[in-house]
Amino acid sequence: MVFLRLKGVFTSSPVLANSVTSLACYALSDLIAQRADDTDIKGSHGNDIDKRRLLSVALCGPILSGICLTKLYRNLDRFLGSGHTFRVASRKILFMQIVYMPFSVPAFIFLSSTFNALFDGEGFTIACTEASAVTNQRWKEAYWTSWFVWPISDAFNFTVMQRRMPAARPTWDAIVMVGWNAYLSWRGIGGHSVTEFSCPARMDDV
Questions:
Q1: pLDDT in tens, 162-174
Q2: Domain count for the chain
Q3: What domain range is 159 assigned to?
């Protein structure tokens, strides 16, 4: 009964449903990442959780998973097939790794870094400049690492999830993102670099 209700919600409002779950999963991912950080990151009120960073990462969920992936998966079903066989899934896996991941990895780093800088009171131009510097330095390592994680996740997503609840495939990605972003943060690629990386332009002003 619960499964049927959830399936109905995702089928009737896929963008909204995936956006809500992605917001929660991305927030959880950074919460875990901050707890696991070796560095002592303090929030604006002296707490051990940086709420601005948490919000910066969480907002990427509805944008990248809730909207982008929901629309993308519909088009993949249309052009590459909507079946749940591994033959169909393999085409989608290759597309995701070769076409989508080179976009989504830098997009996540850029957006989270930009949001964090804006929440810290930086101007839009400076925020984007800092985010670009973070992205250029970090995204390649994150992309190559993604080959060890996301093809396995996508194989499940485009077979089991494709058959059981296709509208919720972006939510599955968001669930995997909990562990993925925690890893990126630990490596200093994702959320970790949101608060700790300073671009040369800012350093010159110090």
A1: 999 999 999 999 9
A2: 1
A3: 18-30+54-190
